[in-house]
């Protein structure tokens, strides 16, 4: 579809960006999960800490990709990054909320 319409939906750095954001998401999830299970009363702070760590590291990765490598289309890179970031964040929050729901019951 991209070739027939001469439109590009994915940047050349899409796959490395996916892999790096996946690793950052797994690390942030592990921090949140350990915080919830070590002290359930402070579990919300652990979740917020994990999300903040993920946001700052992901922003750093985005800046490295944006200014460190030669990028053909910066807007396309930004759209790809934010789509991946929001998708990974959505999955992380859904899984963490399911873990909290089990703890409350």
SSE layout:
Blueprint (H helix, E strand, L loop, with lengths): L1 H4 L8 H25 L4 H26 L5 H31 L1
Helix pairs in contact: 2-3, 2-4, 3-4
Q: Would you tell me the overall average pLDDT?
A: 81
- Rg, Cα atoms, Å: 17 Å
Query: Would you list the SSEs in sequence order as H and E?
Result: HHHH
Q: How would a crystallographer describe the biggest sheet?
A: none
The residue fraction in helices comes out at over 70%
Number of domains: 1
Low-confidence stretches: none
Overall structural class, as computed from helix and strand content, comes to mainly alpha
Describe, in plain words, how this protein is organized in 3D.
This protein has 105 residues and is mostly helical. It has one domain (14-104). The protein is 82% helix and 0% strand. It is built from 4 helices and no strands. It is elongated and about 45 Å long.
Describe this protein with a few key phrases.
105 residues; mainly alpha; 4 helices
Summarize, please.
It is built from four helices and no strands.
């Amino acid at each position: 579809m991209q070739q027939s319409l001469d439109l590009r939906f994915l940047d050349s750095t899409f796959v490395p960006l996916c892999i790096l954001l996946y690793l950052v998401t797994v690390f942030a999830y592990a921090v949140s999960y350990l915080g919830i299970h070590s002290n359930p009363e402070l579990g919300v702070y652990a979740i917020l800490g994990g999300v903040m760590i993920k946001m700052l590291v992901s922003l750093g990765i985005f800046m490295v990709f944006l200014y460190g490598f030669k990028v053909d289309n910066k807007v396309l890179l930004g759209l790809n990054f934010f789509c991946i970031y929001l998708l990974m964040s959505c999955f992380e929050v859904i899984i963490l909320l399911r873990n909290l729901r089990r703890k409350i019951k």
